[in-house]
Amino acid sequence: MSALSLYVDKGSFLNKLHPYTKLLYVFAAILIPLIGGRLLIFPLTILFSLILLLTGRVFRRALPLVAFSFTLIIVIFLIQGLFYHKNENPLFNIRILTFYREGVIYAAGIALNILNMLLSFAVFVLTTAPQDLVEEMEKNGFSPKFGYVINSVFQIVPQMMKTRDTIVDAQRSRGMETEGSLFTRIRAFLPLISPVVMSALINTRERAIALEVRGFGRRNKRSYITDRKKSSADIVISIILAALILAVSVWRILSCLS
Length: 258
What we know:
Blueprint: H1 13-16, H2 19-36, H3 41-55, H4 59-83, E1 90-94, E2 97-100, H5 101-127, H6 130-139, H7 144-173, H8 182-213, H9 232-257
Antiparallel strand pairs: 1-2
């Protein structure tokens, strides 16, 4: 069974950081704008995540996530800009459609939040080996079954992508058209659903059997080949992130009291 994940080992400083440090960054990147309550904070965390993706040399791997998010963001702007229940002041018109200022601002908040979460999670997922995270969690007392669930979550997307590509290649070799107009692509997509789902179920069963054969259900204490310890960079980064969360929280409380 091949180990699949979105993780890419580029030998960057992000790959060398402890998984918990990068996980703390995800929480900080999500919490700081939400606690701050200002839209202007979102572009700062988004920009910082983009810088990390570029320096970690995994920005291209994150592009599909960004492309997917923009599709969702466009839909959000259409719905909220036109039908938000607090719409009062027209902002601009596109033929017969009128977009309102309140709806556009509300949609901007949702869109920035989505983009911020996707990019921060991309920093974590693309630079962290799933087995490293699961191993560290088990060392800290988490159940191996819980670790298996986490590992499966990391593997499900690349597993589905690999299965889809295999089925598409098989259909093309049999003469099925998979490219062309929108109707042609939809017609080619429908036969993919059943094989992909069945393949996911079969892979889950095979993985469960393989794990039991390797003693997954044993109750005795586990041993580990490597002992990953936090470096000085991990400690410094963790302190900075915790301090930022605390500072933003105190600032928000003081601004609410004043």
